# Entry
Amino acid sequence: MAGLSGSALLDAHRTWGSYVLGYIVVEQQDRSPAAERAWRPPVRTDFPLTAEIDPYQGARGWDEQFDIGLEMIFDGIAALAAHSRVRDGAATDG
# Structure
């Protein structure tokens, strides 16, 4: 997490750490197809975002979704670090 320091570094560490721990906790639960269906919230038209993403629920395997999410978190942390370097004048034109 180069480029971050202080509270931003702590926030980044807690963010990806909580993501990983959350997946570990859920992974220990029953992930049978029946359990997945029982966990899945019903589609409600008064929650349009939930309704929009419903067709994609379960489209990816558990490990693939974990990797995608972790990559998104690390990309966000890298963008934050790059923004911090630019803001602090540490970036060079080139």
Q: What stands out?
A: The radius of gyration is 18 Å.
